[in-house]
Each structure stands twice: as structure tokens, then as C-alpha cells.
Amino acid sequence: MSNVYALIGGSRLDHLSRLEGRMIDRIDTPYGKEPVELTRGQIDGLEVVFLSRHGVKEKKPPHMINYRANIWALSTFKPKAIIALASVGAVLVEDEIGTVAIPDQIIDYTWGRETSYNTGKESVINFIDFTYPFDMDLRDEIVRMADIMNLPIVDGGTYAVTQGPRLETAAEIDRIDRDGGHYVGMTLMPEACLAKELNLPYAAICQVVNPAAGRGASANSVEIASNDEELNKVTDQCVDLAIKTFVE
Ligand code: HPA
């Protein structure tokens, strides 16, 4: 049985400085010519494989990420769990910048992405049950660990996935709000359903980095803080939360 855990970093985290005995693997996949670069190592005695979702040297925008290759490459390590980190905009005004949320639902507004490992050549179609897009046990463990760590988080919420890379219009955010979306980002789909197809327990830790379009105090544009010290601190806390969840 494998003893490996996988962490996916988003736009705020493209390497994991805490990995000891770090090794870089470039994994060839059936899903394109470019290998997927993963970093492996130990944290607190735990085997961790880290994937920078957008790539390492060349940064792929959300609509150009090869999600199938990414998740397939991770699957070769048979990880016990995958925790994905993601930056989001807040649809609800009460969710301030720096809020950490563990979403439990997804609404997918993306289009044109490769969303399945079904090729049409199999004798059986893999119709996954996606009622609960995240692994509920893994989510519970993250929430429980946040409690132990005294880290304030929002337990639950619906992550709306937009196509990007442009941000949304104010009317699009109003629509997401009416649809029941709480957080808006561009990357957890098709990542979540691909992990589900491969039977890999997958959950996400989201960090609010801006009010969504039309929701900010001064908004006719969305400013996404990228290097703010406070936000970097929150990103570190999210990594810590993921690792401590794995260790438990
Ligand atoms: N919209 C979509 N994706 C995002 C946002 C946003 O406001 N902030 C961070 N990722």
C-alpha cells in the first residue's frame, strides 16, 4: 500500500520549500507530449508529491492546463489522498480577503476542457457518481485538523468554476450568486472529476484573494493580491493545514 500524499499548488504556490530530500520527476503521460514535472520529498517523515498545477517554468493559464496529464501523473504514485490548493474570489461580501474555505460543492461553468479519461473506446463507460465532488472523509479530516490548529475556516460552500483567464463581469458574478455559488475560481474542474474517475480521494482548500467582480468596495476592476505578506501567511497556513491533515 502506498504511503504517498499529493499536494497540488495553485497560482500562489509553485514550489514547496519544506520538502526534504527533494527529487524532481518528469512523468510522461498518454495525454500530450509535455511531461508533467512533480517534486517528491518528505515533510515530517511523510512522503509527499507536489504538483504545481500551472506548470513550473512555463505558466499555463487555467483554460490551457493539461488537467488529464496532471492527475494521471499524480496517480502513478498511487497517492492516499490529494489536497488541492486554490485561490478564489469571494461572491459573498462577508468572506473577506484571507478567508480560508473548504468547499463541499462545485458548479462548473467551464467549456472546451478535456473532462474525462473515457476515450469512447472502452467497452464500459465510467459514469462516476459526482453528487459530492469532493471526498467527504478527506474534507472532514481537513475541517477537524483546522479546528485542532485553531485555524478559522469556512466549512463548506460552493466553488463556481469559470473558464478564465479573464475575470468575470459583475453580471456573471450576480448569476453565480443566484445559482448558489460562494467562491469563484478557474481550476478545480475538471481536476476534481478526473481524480474521481481514477478513484483518488480529492479535496480542496481555498483561499480568498479578492472580492469577486462587482463585490469590492471600489470595484470596477478586481485586484488580485499576489504578493501581499498577509496573503502569503495565509497560503503557508493552508499548506500547513494540508500537511497536518496528511500526517494525522
Ligand atoms: N474569479 C475567478 N477566479 C479567481 C478569482 C476571481 O475573482 N480570484 C482568484 N481566482
From TrEMBL:
Matching Pfam families: PNP_UDP_1
GO molecular function, one term: S-methyl-5-thioadenosine phosphorylase activity
EC number: 2.4.2.44
Protein name: S-methyl-5'-thioinosine phosphorylase
CC terms in the record's Gene Ontology section: cytosol
SUPFAM superfamilies, per the entry: Purine and uridine phosphorylases
Enzyme class: transferase
Positions in coiled-coil regions: none
InterPro entries the record matches: MTAP, Nucleoside_phosphorylase_d, Nucleoside_phosphorylase_sf
Keywords associated with the record: Glycosyltransferase, Transferase
Domain Nucleoside phosphorylase: 6-240
Gene Ontology terms: biological process: L-methionine salvage from methylthioadenosine; nucleoside metabolic process
Keyword Ligase among UniProt keywords: no
Alphabetical list of CDD domains matching this protein: MTAP_SsMTAPII_like_MTIP
